[in-house]
Amino acid sequence: MATSVDGTNEVATRRILIVDPDALVRRELRTACEQDGYEVVEAESGVDGLRESEDQKPSLILLEVTLPDMSGFDACREIRKSDNSVPIILISSRSDEIDVVVGLEIGADDYVVKPLRTRELLARMAAHMRKQRVESFDSSRGRLEFKDLIIDVNERRVFRSGAEVDLTHTEFDLLSFLAANAGKVLSREKILNTIWGYEYPIETRVIDVHIRNLRRKIEATPARPNYILAVPGIGYRFTNARPGS
């Protein structure tokens, strides 16, 4: 059993897929990951990355945005068509807001800008791979019901007006946390520490983009949300109904 940089015990055989055309970057990431107890699979192109993702079933994917044969955004979209649970961290030297927003909107869980700070990246990876990342809501309820929205906590399924809503792992955790604390104002810091599970600085747009994605999926009119309301200068509040019995 290996001990990660954040002090938690991680299973030594957890598999990381690194998709990056730069051999030096792959080598540096492989060394850091293996020292932290992970098994590593490498790919240098989008096509290879998609194949390895399908064949190797990694626990987490580190995906470079700039690939020789396709955009890392396109690769992320393809992975999400068949797998909504594997955490995907986009890595890139591009820090423009539009790149970060696009990456998160297509289903990535996180976006890290190069040059990479290894210890921070390892901490983010460990946080994303924890099986139980949301501990503060009462999972014993089993189901949270709000008007036309049902959240099945145990089965990790969400239904809106009877139709199942397709959420990523992070989106489900975020929605469950907000809904379980319905009526409470939750700060961005509280959301970050609970859902992302680490205390390294993160830009608020990461949280805000995930909130926007959730609104598009669960709100009848995303521009005028009924469930997830912004509290200016603080964070967000889930409202408009009480959990069903």
Sum this structure up briefly:
Helices cover 38% and strands 22% of the residues.
Structural summary, described in words:
The termini are far apart. Helix 2 runs parallel beside helix 3 (72-82), helix 4 (97-105) runs parallel beside helix 8 (204-218) and helix 6 (169-180) packs across helix 8 (204-218). Mean pLDDT is 85; it is low at 1-12 and 132-139. The chain is globular, with a radius of gyration of 18 Å. It has a five-stranded parallel β-sheet, sandwiched between helices. Helix 3 links the parallel strand 5 and strand 6 (88-92). It has eight helices and 14 strands. With 245 residues, the chain is of the alpha/beta class.
Layout of helices and strands, plus pairs?
Elements: E1 2-3, E2 9-10, E3 15-19, H1 23-35, E4 39-43, H2 46-56, E5 60-64, H3 72-82, E6 88-92, H4 97-105, E7 110-113, H5 118-129, E8 143-146, E9 149-152, E10 157-160, E11 163-165, H6 169-180, E12 185-187, H7 188-196, H8 204-218, E13 228-231, E14 235-238
Parallel strand pairs: 3-4, 3-5, 5-6, 6-7
Antiparallel strand pairs: 1-2, 8-9, 9-10, 10-11, 12-14, 13-14
Helix pairs in contact: 2-3, 4-8, 6-7, 6-8
